[in-house]
């Protein structure tokens, strides 16, 4: 190739480093393009405290995925440019011993450029989209109001039909309220036939009494209150 057409690029590249242990922090680093990916992982082990042997590296331009950095290749073989981001993912939850954990205050992070937060703010995305946040809050309010309205109808002893997970099931409301570890209002139902999953106990906590396999805890949105008379399944058989 003629020297007139030779493309000259830097031997080093300046990138931001994030990792799956603390994705909120972006650390600016400079690396030689001649590094093998294995050598790069060893350097990142010192920086992030993650184990090189369990590390997977992904290359991003902003939030756009570019490539996986694979062992046996060199960094310069990828279309890597300044201000791109290398994200280290650890398949095993591991922090190397005696490696000081990198920490950055929220104020320091705000001042950095080419971070995920900076990208979201510049593009008016996520929590920085005020109009979308208002719409989301309104949708949540409407959903909460509707759940409260439905819950007010689901009095203990009411007959109901459950419309989730397969065919409709008929039963009786035995519980109305929160379910530990879950958001929203749940209805405890004792079904007319053994189409449930428990006896009124969930994760060791009893919410109501019924026979095994006759009970279920169901989100209020999947419960319809109505005049559903008990069916005689023995006669059908």
Can you put this structure into words, describing what you see?
The chain has 237 residues and is of the alpha+beta class. It folds into two domains: 3-104, Ubiquitin-like (UB roll) (Roll); 153-236, CAP Gly-rich-like domain (SH3 type barrels, Roll). The chain has helices spanning 37-48, 106-111, 116-122, 130-153, 233-236; strands spanning 12-19, 22-32, 55-61, 64-69, 85-90, 159-162, 169-177, 186-191, 201-202, 205-206, 215-219, 223-225. The chain has a five-stranded mixed β-sheet, with helices on one face. Strand 1 and strand 2 form a beta hairpin. The protein is elongated.
- Listing every helix as H and every strand as E from the N terminus to the C terminus, the arrangement reads EEHEEEHHHEEEEEEEH
CATH superfamily membership of the largest domain, which one? Phosphatidylinositol 3-kinase Catalytic Subunit, Chain A, domain 1
Specify the CATH architecture of the largest domain: Roll
Shape: elongated
Mean pLDDT: 81
Count the domains.
2
InterPro entries: CAP-Gly_dom_sf, CAP-Gly_domain, TBCB_Ubl, Ubiquitin-like_dom, Ubiquitin-like_domsf
Organism: Pseudolycoriella hygida
Family: Belongs to the TBCB family.
Subcellular location: Cytoplasm
Brief write-up:
Residues 177-219 form the CAP-Gly domain. The chain is α+β, with helices and mostly antiparallel strands and 237 residues long.
Distinctive features:
237 residues, alpha+beta, Ubiquitin-like (UB roll), SH3 type barrels, five-stranded antiparallel β-sheet, elongated, disordered N terminus
Break the fold down into its secondary structure elements and pairings:
Layout: E1 12-19, E2 22-32, H1 37-48, E3 55-61, E4 64-69, E5 85-90, H2 106-111, H3 116-122, H4 130-153, E6 159-162, E7 169-177, E8 186-191, E9 201-202, E10 205-206, E11 215-219, E12 223-225, H5 233-236
Parallel strand pairs: 1-5
Antiparallel strand pairs: 1-2, 3-4, 3-5, 6-7, 6-12, 7-8, 8-11, 9-10
